[in-house]
Amino acid sequence: MVIAPPRDAEDTGRRRVTGRPRLVAGLLVGLLFLLLACAASLAFGAESVPPGKVVTALTDYDPTDRDQLVVRHLRLPRTLSGLLVGAALGLAGTVMQGVARNPLADPGMLGINAGAALFVVIGIGWLGLSSFSGYVWCGFVGALLAALLVYGVSAVGREGATPVKLALAGATTTAALGSITGALVLSDTDTFDQYRFWQVGTLSRTADIVGQAAPFILVGAVGALLSGRFLNTLALGEDMARTLGQRVGLVRAMGALSVVLLCGSATALCGPIVFVGLVVPHMVRALTGSDYRWVLPYAAVVAPALLLTADVIGRLVARPSEIQVGIVTALLGSVPFILLVRRWKTAEL
């Protein structure tokens, strides 16, 4: 595609000035939506808690008050989990699509979900782990090793890790690891019973487990947010990126490391939550355009807001029980994604 040059520098400057305030305003609106989603996550559930008690639970906690106890020890860790996991999936999906130059890239593409799932099963069946704190570490190691395997296989050859080779290696690794996981689970009833609660995807975690995953997610988020300029250059094509002095292999490796930290920790913490990392980057590009310096911050705000909203919906539609957020995102994410693809032609990055 050939892009016609602007008529003059003044016209280009004017468009940048008018565009930036709009993008900043949109980001502030997204932050407001995220704040409202957090408030709803703290207030709504099997039993609603009045807004006054929610504020009191955060500022002047009284452990003898049942509502404040629920907010402080159940819903606050769950909300923090949604913030971290949502931001991680949104950023990881954006980086993956930019690095692989593939609009359908998601946490499953590099085998991250499959690797995390396999090592969680190994931890349950062979190591006797029964707490989610153990699952976090097993899932993280599995995601890391799976991503390294995919990148190592795709990097073999003169051309290195091209987008097509990454996709093929990821699909093959995912299928192979999924088969091994299925065989292990089906051969052990006790392992299956524990694994299925992690596999469904939920934000309901304790504060200490969230705290274990938080450092990895924060480090990965910083790396992802700093990669916007490099992803913009890579989007021009590998030859052009090399002409501009970019080390394409190093950029891909750093992007993969950020994705492993983000997706590996998020998947290990809450299970494989689908569609967030796939849909959110496309939604954001419809608002910001293709500049990754804006796409990444938007994704870090929009993704947790949508994830927390889906979690609140899952709590409200099945009171006094609930539908896990992994199921809600799968149900609600497919239709908007199809509409986005048809309307905005998001197959073009």
Order of helices and strands: HHHHHHHHHHHHHH
Report the uncertain regions: 1-18
CATH topology grouping:
ABC transporter involved in vitamin B12 uptake, BtuC
Instruction: Give the name of the CATH architecture.
Output: Orthogonal Bundle
> Would you state the CATH class?
Mainly Alpha
Distance between the termini: 12 Å
Largest sheet: none
Mean pLDDT over the residues: 81
Q: Name the structural class.
A: mainly alpha
CATH superfamily: ABC transporter involved in vitamin B12 uptake, BtuC
Can you walk me through this structure?
With 349 residues, the chain is mostly helical. The protein has one domain (29-35, 82-344): ABC transporter involved in vitamin B12 uptake, BtuC (Orthogonal Bundle), CATH 1.10.3470. 76% of the residues lie in helices and 0% in strands. The chain is built from 14 helices and no strands. Helix 3 runs antiparallel to helix 11 and helix 12 packs across helix 13 (292-316). It is globular, with a radius of gyration of 21 Å. It starts with 8 loop residues before the first helix and ends in a 5-residue tail after the last helix. Residues 1-18 have low confidence and may be disordered.
